[in-house]
Write a structure and sequence with these properties.
The complex is a heterodimer of chains A (about 675) and B (about 160). Among the domains of chain A are: about 160 residues, no CATH class; about 100 residues. Helices cover about 65% and strands about 10% of the residues of chain A.
Chain lengths: ~675, ~160
């Protein structure tokens, strides 16, 4: 297997290099036949990288510990699913996986070249250049098929216990699909700029690609947050770790792009801005990879420090220089077709939305890199942790939430202040009512700034939810009047007619739910206690009673766990089993959190250890309000994005359907009438 | 001796206010301070987690550091004194966020400065774009039905979303 893997990797590099060079030459010399060979070489490159990836997976399945990577990231008793996940659990394997995903995206693009052969040829050549970089890395800097020196060990070191969790099998692929997916809109944008492509066709072509990449990145980020919450056992889901921040950076700029691109499509504005947003997103995706793998910043879950950082520096510099060169040369083609007509318009709301997203991106990047900067300037290192990020980003996030509520109420081009006032009365009143209700319910925003932020976040969430509901209501009512259907049917029809708009509103509603989940954070409670048989712990409204504690032994790990009965108001409502595992191969320990998640709050138990003197387990209990809404919100965001990806139902089709329905109704009534007569 | 009814009402109001303030401010004192300070410090074992959130098994630092924090609070040390003692013992990196002194101030100022600058720039740009003259047609164009339909289609497309 290692020989096959090594050979196919070299072959893939040669094919990618050919695809790039021949593709670029073909475009320069306008040689279609040469261009076709470049396209086919690109397709063959996918086959070669696929064989290499399969070779690594087969080596893991076959316990081939002669391969250094397999020896370090797998062991004989590792369950099959995690052996598969070994492909992306280490530096070399994950880079190979990255190269494979990129080849797969490129394959789809190269197979669909007939949509616009010229533009696709440019995009294909640019993607081939990116492929060359990653294949150079896996061939010469981080080779996944390196062999162990000396005697081949009988068993491997095993997979990191923290990664032995079902979500970790899908979290990295999702994240990588997002990161890698950015390459496609980047390639189309740069291609369109190089060839001075007129119009917005590249945007129409890449809109779905961008949304798919955004969807995967969103999914990956929140799967990571859920994994952190359920596995790491510290009671939180986001620690502002550099690796987490690295995933957030391209997500923020891509979100900005998805909004501002509408201005280009509808009004021919912001062309330069959009070009740079997509360039920046791609550069940040690569920069995030560099941060994770170079050891520049210390992180809990970065890959081991290695020498591949310099490769990324060169690649980033070269890409940036290329973008700047072609932008300067061809910027004349990116002139705006329209001017902004009013400050109170949908266009300016998108402009401010972009501003806030980019400032948030800057704040995260700044906080992530400040320790490096501080050490460079003052010679002393500082920590930039959650208190900094929360204090800086929460106000920015709240401002963004205001825009999320305001934006949809503004019309394109110009909105009269009277209309703004009229549209805002109900949402603003509901938001104020929510704030008053929360204070009556016991929230004291004057006690702590965190409580104040929480109150403002929930009130603004109500405002945004009201505007979204209002949009659905108004649209549904119009359709209902036109067709005689119910308002709910009207809303469904309206959503199908304009999937992008109403899918987008659903995404906003999902964001609202996520924010509500975040707003519970200041009210978290925790308590740690040694728990012997029958011992009790009081936290929040719960009484925890330790029923027993015991041990277990499995081939891959041994474990200790406690049985905790949960009482509320004197009634037993549940039994929970916090656990601690000791993984034999890696000789590492991991906690398995017991979490009772309900809409109001999570009861979250962690088996932190055992008192060596008494042998009794030490249990840490957390009561985390509203967390469930984060995961519900993510699902709504995903559903909204999937709806936005669907093509619109044409009004003509709807009319036919309505006619059919009306006809069917007449027939039904007739039948009923006849039947009734019988 | 008779009390002025207005002054007795005032006194009752003052007592109520003091009681409320005492409940609000004193009730949560030591626990809230422990939580606030503990969330402002990092565990120094290398796990990269905030002190009160470090939970990894076998951590040799967090328990000791929490005890030091409790001891500091029990001694009646002020917040700054507690933090200072941690910095002296573990170095600057024990603080979970940069301080607001010296070069560290830049960390706090920069995001908001960029925000303010970007906001000002955006407003200026919007005003500039708004003030650009638009070319006016010399005479009213005569449009046939097909052209009107085309324009309506364009308007719908531009304003639909």
């Amino acid at each position: 297997m290692p020989q096959i893997g090594s050979f196919t990797l070299l072959l893939a590099l040669a094919l990618a290099a050919y695809s790039f060079v021949a593709g670029a030459l073909a475009l320069w010399r306008k040689d279609d036949r040469l261009g076709e060979t470049a396209r086919r070489a690109g397709i063959a490159c996918w086959a070669a990288v696929t064989v290499a990836s399969l070779a690594l997976v087969m080596a893991a399945f076959g316990n081939d510990f002669s391969v250094s990577y397999i020896m370090h990231h797998s062991n004989r008793d590792l369950p099959i699913a995690y052996k598969f996940a070994a492909l992306w659990s280490g530096q070399e394997g994950s880079l190979l996986f990255w190269a494979w995903l990129l080849s797969t995206y490129a394959l789809v693009l190269r197979l669909r070249y007939k949509v616009d052969p010229q533009l696709f040829a440019y995009a294909s050549a640019i993607i081939a250049a990116v492929q060359v970089f990653f294949l150079l890395l896996v061939n010469f800097a981080a080779h996944p098929f390196g062999l162990v020196s000396g005697q081949i060990p009988a068993d491997g070191n095993g997979l990191n216990p923290l990664l032995q969790y079902p979500e970790m099998v899908i979290h990295p692929p999702m994240l990588y699909l997002g990161y890698v997916g950015v390459t496609v809109p980047f390639a189309f944008a740069l291609g369109a700029l190089i060839m001075k492509y007129p119009g917005e066709k590249w945007i129409h072509i890449t809109r779905r690609w961008t949304m798919v990449a955004w969807l995967f990145l969103t999914c990956g980020i929140f799967l990571g947050a859920h994994w952190a919450y359920e596995v790491l056992g510290w009671g939180g889901y986001w620690g502002w770790d550099p690796v987490e921040n690295a995933s957030l950076l391209p997500w923020l700029t891509m979100t900005a792009f998805l909004h501002s691109v509408m201005m280009q499509e509808k009004r021919g504005m912001m062309k330069m801005w959009n070009m740079w947003l997509i360039f920046t997103t791609f550069l940040l995706a690569i920069f995030g990879t560099f941060l994770t793998r170079s050891g520049v910043v210390s992180s809990v879950h970065a890959f081991a420090q290695s020498g591949i950082g310099i490769w990324f520096v060169w690649f980033l510099s070269l890409t940036f220089a290329t973008c700047v060169y072609f932008f300067v040369r061809n910027r004349e083609t990116l002139k705006s077709e329209h001017r902004l007509e009013s400050l109170v318009s949908r266009e300016s709301s998108f402009l401010f939305n972009n501003l806030v997203l980019l400032v948030a991106c800057f704040a995260v990047l700044w906080g992530t890199l400040f320790p490096v900067l501080s050490e460079w300037v003052t010679g002393s290192k500082v920590t930039v942790g959650p208190p900094f990020f929360n204090r800086v980003n929460v106000p920015i996030g709240l401002f963004l939430l205001v825009l999320t509520g305001v934006g949809p109420l503004l019309a394109w081009r110009k909105t009269s202040l009277d209309r703004v006032r009229r549209n805002f009365v109900i949402p603003t009143s509901l938001a104020l009512l929510a704030a008053i209700a929360l204070m009556i319910g016991g929230m004291k925003p004057w006690q702590d700034s965190a409580y104040l932020y929480s109150l403002v976040a929930i009130s603004l969430s109500v405002l945004v939810a009201a505007t979204v509901a209002g949009e659905f209501w108004r649209g549904g009512r119009v359709i209902a009047r036109q067709t005689g259907a119910s308002i709910v049917q009207g809303m469904a029809t309206m959503t199908r007619r304009n999937t992008r708009r109403y899918g987008g509103y659903l995404v906003h509603f999902g964001v609202v739910l996520i924010v509500i989940g975040f707003a519970g954070l200041p009210f978290n409670q925790d308590k740690e206690q040694e728990m012997g048989f029958g011992d009790k712990m009081q936290i929040g409204g719960y009484t925890l009673v330790c029923q027993s504690y015991t041990q277990d032994d499995k081939p891959n790990y041994s474990s200790e766990w406690a049985v905790m009965d949960v009482y509320k108001h004197g009634t037993k409502i549940d039994a929970m089993f916090p656990e601690r595992r000791f993984y034999k191969a890696s000789e590492q320990t991991a906690t398995m959190v017991a979490n009772r998640s309900r809409p109001a709050e999570d009861l979250y138990l962690v088996y932190t250890g055992r008192n060596p003197d008494t042998g009794k387990p030490i249990i840490k209990a957390h009561v985390n309000p509203l967390v469930m809404w984060i995961w519900v919100g993510v699902h709504v965001v995903l559903i909204g994005t999937l709806i936005a990806l669907l093509p619109n139902l044409k009004p003509a089709k709807i009319a036919v359907k309505e006619k059919e329905r009306a006809g069917a109704e007449v027939v039904r009534r007739g039948t009923v009438g006849v039947g009734g007569g019988d | 001796m008779k009390l002025d009814p207005r002054s007795s009402k005032l006194r009752i109001a003052q007592l109520v206010l003091i009681a409320v303030l005492a409940m609000l401010l004193l009730g949560a004192d030591s626990d809230a301070r422990f939580s606030k300070l503990g969330h402002g410090l990092m565990c120094m074992c290398g796990c990269g987690q905030v002190l009160l959130e470090c939970n990894h098994v076998g951590c040799t630092y967090s328990e000791r550091m929490r005890n030091e924090l409790t001891a500091g609070l029990e001694r009646g040390d002020s917040d700054s004194l507690v933090l200072q003692s941690f910095v002296q013992k573990y170095g600057n990196t024990v603080l979970a966020a940069p301080t607001t002194t010296g070069f560290n101030r830049v960390a706090w100022i920069m995001p908001f400065a960029v925000f303010a600058a970007a906001l000002a720039l955006t407003i200026w740009l919007v005003r500039l774009w708004k003030s650009r003259p638009v070319a006016q047609p010399v005479q009213q164009p005569k449009l046939d039905a097909a052209e009107l339909d085309e324009l309506r289609k364009k308007a719908r497309q531009e304003t639909e979303f």
